[in-house]
Amino acid sequence: MNVPLLPESASNFSTDVDHLMYYLVGVSVFFTLLIFGAIFYFAIRYRRRSENELPKAVHTSLTLEIAWSVIPFGLTMIMFAWGASIFFRESRPPKNAMQVYVVAKQWMWKLQHMEGQREINELHIPVGRPVKLVMTSEDAIHSFYVPAFRTKQDVVPGRYSTTWFIATKPGKYHLFCAEYCGTKHSGMTGWIYAMEPQDYQAWLSGGRAFGSLAENGEKLFQDLACGNCHKADGSGRCPSLVGLYGRSVMLADGRTITADEAYLRESILRPDAKIVAGYQPLMPTFQGLVTEEGVLQLIEYIKSLAPPPAGGAGTTPAEINVNPGVATAAPTNP
Amino acid sequence: MNTAATEERETYLNAGYGLKSWLLTSDHKRIAILYLITVTIFFFIGGIFATLIRIELLTPQGDLVSSDTYNKLFTMHGITMIFFFLLPSIPATLGNFFLPMMIGARDLAFPRINLLSWYLLVAGGALAIFAMAAGGVDTGWTFYTPYSTTYSNTWVIATALGIFVAGFSSILTGLNFIVTVHRMRAPGMTWFRLPLFVWSHYATAVIQVLGTPVLAVTLVLVFCERAFHIGIFDPALGGDPVLFQHMFWFYSHPAVYIMVLPAMGVISEIVSVYSRKPVFGYHFVAFSSMAIAVIGFLVWGHHLFVSTQSVYAGLVFSFLSYFVAVPSAVKVFNWTATLYKGSISFGTPMLYAFGFIGLFTIGGLTGLFVASLGFDVHVTDTYFVVAHFHYIMVGGAIMGFLGGLHYWWPKMTGRMYPEGWAKLSAAIIFVGFNLTFFPQFILGYLGMPRRYHVYPPEFQVLHVLSTAGASVLAVGYLFPLVYLLWSLRYGKVASANPWGATGLEWKTQSPPPVHNFDEIPVVTTEAYDYSTVVGEAVEIG
Amino acid sequence: MKLAEQVQAQTPAHAEGETLALREQFDTAEQQKESSTFGMWVFLVTEVMFFGGMFLAYTIYRNTYPYVFGKASTSLNAVIGALNTAVLLCSSYTMVLAVRSAQIGKRKALVIFLVLTLLLGLTFLGVKAYEWNEKFVEHHVPGAHFHFEGAAEQGPAQLFFSLYFAMTGLHALHMVVGVGILSWLLFHTLRGRFSAEYMTPVDVAGLYWHFVDIIWIFLFPLLYLIDRHMK
Q1: With a CB-CB cutoff of 8 Å, which residues 24-53 of chain A face chain B?
Q2: Could you give the CA distance from residue B4 to residue B531 in angstroms, rounded to a whole number?
Q3: Is pLDDT above 60 for B358?
Q4: Looking at beta carbons, which residues of chain B come within 8 Å of C65?
Q5: Are strands A98-105 and A130-137 parallel, antiparallel or unpaired?
Q6: Does the distance separating the beta carbons of B182 and C153 come in below 8 Å?
Q7: In this complex, which of B334, B362, B537 lies closest to A52 when CB atoms are compared?
Q8: Of B62, B447, B537, Cβ closest to residue A176
Q9: In chain B, N or C terminus with fewer CB closer than 10 Å?
Q10: Are A279 and A62 in contact (CB under 8 A)?
Q11: Is A255 in the B-facing interface, judged by CB distances under 8 Å?
């Protein structure tokens, strides 16, 4: 009967988290033994031997109280710093990360590769390459948890959340939903398949062709007649979207923000939230007219409206639609 | 029969018979007993839910109940245990009974509000139990939106209303305690002569008064959203589901200190008496209660590390969470140091106190684990967290409750409980508890998420161990129910001060008269001065 | 007096010599008065936390949707709101005068000022009802028939109005309770229960009334006055 104590260690974070765990366990065992030991020893050594015993009062000292406050606090600061450093790294995906979109809904995971592959409850990824997941939910809050990677991130409706990892070992790893979401919460599980790079390529090219996200996005852009206002040369009533992704945008209220996925999603579904400086709040909302997957496709299409980046970044495949004759500023790469 | 002697003397128990004399009482001691009966009932209801959960989890498949039913079971277990048992348990029973006596008062400042508090708990609990019987609620005790506001098809509103009403019970108790401690201390009872039990209840009261209203308004918003579809937390309308989490945890984190601080107060009393020494570092223990209350309001975001809360907020909350651990550690060290050069005896209350210190230490140390951001990312929403909080709530708070119940049983009832059975039960509870919850730390680190009805087969061995422990624990809890009730009729008659304790409550009869003291005492000694209670004392140490 | 006997009969058995004024858990009337007042202050702190939650939600959403919240806010009638604010401020003034009258034992003045406070409070509630009716007619009540013309998407606008109704509703509820308390005070004043030696309930009710007034002083600018220029 083999009861493992640790899950497999399969990501760039796993070993770190396990080492932190060993430190935490070590400190805890030390203090547990210390306290249990002291109690055990005192209880025996100072047990009551006669009924009329009256112990003398023992007074504490400020030094002692400070010492046993500060020293443990110092030990915990190591826990804090170590954990914080792992957390910081977990929140900063590398710029060259391979992006996969995730849409969670009761009670399944829908995953979408840039190249068009769709997966349900499974994610195939190459070993050794940073993978960044951009996730949203269609209904309740879910949470994307891969114990072998030691990563977890809530998936919240109405916004994007991201998580990233590098698989270090080929294998098949549990994917769990870790935020209670209703009846089949415990059934909302799946598998991460980490594969050798060549196997991953083989997997990518097999299966039926879906059309890349950006291609589907272009079609949706035309179906929804976005181009009527968002003319590529900026002559419409609304800002041009060419080269928008990644750029700084000045808003009517004076703030400046970066046009990332969240901004693009919000502009489609909540156009009144951030009005671009110099424009009127004219855009109607597309809430209800476009699904979360549709939004992802539009975002990928908008990303593609840029001059080709120097040196492959691997996030924008497919065709680049740039109106000839329009000067576009070099975009900052996602 | 040994009841004759007590019958003649007027005590709070026999001053007036009949239901009306109890249901319309303004005597804090009777109200405490009413609460004791009420919370015990809720404890066993919550326990039944726990039993069903653990039986279901014996096997990886969902073969005992349906998923919907299972989801209701863990929700209702949490709600019943937290809102209707743990939160009121010690403050409303032992606190109500002994806080006035310990400070030398005849009653709380507002006795009728005290009775109202009890009725509010009963009404709120009845509403919640009605909702559970009518179909149940399946949102988890944390009611996260938008599941609870939009997607759940269960009795959310009725349950939320029940909790809302019970919340006012808690607020009024806190209000009563604060005014009482400030205004009703006997002559000579200065702040630093107060028993540490009073300090910890005062700190608890501050949390009750400041935190609970925020839960109340959060529940009001959930209610409005569900009933009127107004959309405060609904992302489809631009609402923020994570705002709910912030508002909910702003109360619910301090709430855990409402649950554990009173138990710490009990432990201070017990450790002192059974070492026959003042608590080591009295001032530090007193101040640590206040520090826990204050800092406890600043750490709620550690429940939101992976919620899409900002990284920087995560850093701040993680840091402060380590800060709040320090006063708790100070208490553990001071209790341990109290044993040094003491005169230690091993009555049942002391066994519970040892159990508390040990298990609270483990629970508190694992709190350090989850306060670490990188570690928490892996274990949040897994059984690791479940184990952590059960170590504190059950291994800590409930042991404190049982310890206090036994310690003050003679004073409240005028009867001694059977020591042998009591010690046996304490041992069974300790063993059962550890067997139930220690495997869950391992389960959690392995990746077993919480609130899971079915699970991958590789987790089964640990679940079986846990359920085995739960059966032992259940037996352990049933014993006191039986022998404590037995002692009411057949237990040895208790003297005024069977344990040789200091404290004003031990200077009056067991059970106390209606007005607590024939004459209001004038306090001239420091707290925990055992020279006043040990006859022909032989100094040691 | 018959009332004293009635009250005596209702309260459970106590030590002899208890008067209507001095409860048996207290040693002196001073202690009782201080405890009651302190108790009310503690209660008001809980009310601050209670309303605070809603103020927090409002502040956060206002920060997220400044444009829509501004537009929605301008649809409220600031003149009527200001009028109501004046009414409530006056009622606090008459309440202060009521407490003063009680302190110096002037029963007739106490009655007059309580009545005035009551009337002003009822006026406030009446005006509130009128405002809410306006909102209902304009389809600004959240729910199935909600429609706000000033913004493209309805979501954040509905959020504003949800918070508007929740906050003013909660406030109005507290006003209703306050009106009930004032009525109770009036009833007992007419029965001669209060005197210069014992007027704690009047004092404590005054605190409550002022608190409800202060909440409105915060609500009014926050809901009605910010971003008036957007109209």
Answers
A1: 24, 27-28, 31-32, 35-36, 38-39, 42-43, 46-50, 52-53
A2: 33
A3: yes
A4: 238
A5: parallel
A6: no
A7: B537
A8: B447
A9: N
A10: no
A11: no
Write down the domain spans for chain C.
Answer: 26-230
B173: in domain: yes
Backbone angles phi, psi at B358, to 5 degrees: -65, -50
pLDDT of residue B105: 94
pLDDT digits (tens, 9 = 90+) for B232-272: 898 887 889 999 999 999 999 999 999 999 999 999 999 99
Phi then psi dihedrals of residue B451, to 5 deg: 65, 30
Q: What is the pLDDT of residue B9?
A: 82
Residue range(s) of every CATH 1.10.760.10 domain in chain A:
213-304
Q: How far apart are CA B130 and CA B72, in angstroms?
A: 14
d(CA B338, CA A190): 53
Could you tell me the pLDDT band of residue C3, with boundaries at 50, 70 and 90?
very low
The length of chain C in residues reads: 231
- Domains in chain B: how many in total? 1
Q: Do C162 and B216 touch (CB under 8 A)?
A: no
The fold adopted by the segment(s) C26-230 is: Four Helix Bundle (Hemerythrin (Met), subunit A) (1.20.120)
Going from the C-alpha of B72 to that of each of B133, B135, B152, B153, B155, the distances in angstroms are 11, 9, 11, 11, 10
- Chain A residues with CB under 8 Å of B339 CB are 38-39, 42-43, 46
CATH topology for the A1-38+60-210 domain:
Immunoglobulin-like (2.60.40)
* pLDDT for res C12: 40
Rounded to an integer, what distance in angstroms lies between the CA atom of residue B36 and that of residue B90? 9
The shortest CB-CB distance from B541 to any of A56, A79, A176 is to A56
pLDDT: is A48 or C3 the higher one?
A48
Residue of chain C whose Cα is closest to the Cα of A268:
C153
pLDDT band at C4 (very low <50, low <70, confident <90, very high): very low
Which residue in chain C has the smallest CA separation from A267?
C153
For residues A224 and C228, give the distance between their C-alpha atoms in angstroms, rounded to a whole number: 36
Kindly report the CATH number that applies to the domain delimited by A213-304: 1.10.760.10
ipTM value? 0.94
Residue C231 pLDDT level (bands cut at 50, 70, 90): low
Nearest CA in chain C to A273: C65
* Residue B537 maps to a domain: no
- Which of B111, B175, B239 has the CB atom closest to C39's CB atom? B175
Flag whether residue B110 sits within 8 Å of chain C, measured between CB atoms: yes
pLDDT digits (tens, 9 = 90+) for B170-190: 999 999 999 999 999 999 999
Least confident of A25-39, B455-469, C134-148: C134-148
Q: In whole angstroms, what is the distance from residue B338 CA to residue B21 CA?
A: 43
Give residue A332's pLDDT.
35
CA distance C108 to chain B (A): 30
Looking at the complex, report in whole angstroms how far the Cα of residue C93 sits from the nearest Cα belonging to chain A: 41
Residue A319 has pLDDT above 80, yes or no: no
Higher-pLDDT residue of B535 and C32 is C32
| Residue B3 falls inside a structural domain | no
Domain-located, residue B2 = no
pLDDT score of A64 more than 70: yes
> What proportions of chain C, in percent to the nearest 5, are helix, strand and coil?
75, 0, 25
What does pTM read for this prediction?
0.90
> What does the mean pLDDT of chain B come to?
95
Q: Which chains reach chain A with 3 or more Cβ–Cβ distances below 8 angstroms?
A: B, C
